[in-house]
Write the structure tokens for this entry.
Amino acid sequence: MSVLDGILAGVREDLEERKRATPLAELRSRAADAAPALDPLPGFRAPGVSVIAEVKRKSPSKGALADIPDPASLAAQYAAGGAAAISVLTESRRFGGSLADLDAVRARVDVPVLRKDFIVDPYQLWEARAHGADLALLMVVSLDDAQLADLMALCKELGLTPLVEAHTADEVRRAVAAGAELLGINARDLTTLDVDRKVFAELAPAIPEGTVKVAESGVTGPKDVAEYRGWGADVVLVGEALVRSGDPSTAVRDFIEAAGA
Ligand SMILES: O=P(O)(O)OC[C@@H](O)[C@@H](O)c1c[nH]c2ccccc12
């Protein structure tokens, strides 16, 4: 069993428990009461690189990264540094996140918020919207074409912008075929956890003009952001380097400046 399979097994168990605790009808009514989702795409298309700054406590590859007792305050510092969006990991077993983190961040910042999780079921998109997310991650590797199409259609209905994540040429092709407007290349192979930033350089040319390109994972400092930018990234998604930085606001600003206009 790969690392990803192990994560997905836990995600499905936790999902069944939440489904028992909170019926879909209740999520639907909470989603209806939520403020409409923000559209992140104009911001991501603005000149210069955009940063999606992530609230990430731990990971299967690195273990504990940072305690983050106050995710809302971390997110506020990211926003003050100029982050175009905030990513909140909500997977609990391996990443130490929760929907409570999403609630806290949503309540504090005005920039778009991404629910970062292993989304395999429509219920999770209703949850995302009920908890105020504007974007949701859809990982091509863990979905077949029919599931991807269904989840993309539900995102549209809910006003959520899907960040469609790929790691191979075939996954990029499937993401494009599904109509992704926001396409992420994860430099981390989730079956082995190996990170290779050059995967972005190799796959980006296959992404059609007009699609917003997101470089995910492996940014250790401003130089890496500049490199991704040189390879055509419109957006970089950064977790570890920011949660460990000690000064998240300055770190975000440095990343944006490193990439130039
Ligand atoms: O901490 P890093 O290397 O900056 O990576 C951030 C982000 O790309 C990573 O958390 C991520 C990308 N895709 C994912 C899918 C699931 C869980 C986590 C991820």
Observations:
- The chain has one domain: 3-260.
- The mean pLDDT is 97.
- Residues 54, 56, 116, 165, 186, 216-219, 237-241 surround indole-3-glycerol phosphate (CB under 6 Å).
- DSSP finds twelve helices and ten strands in the chain.
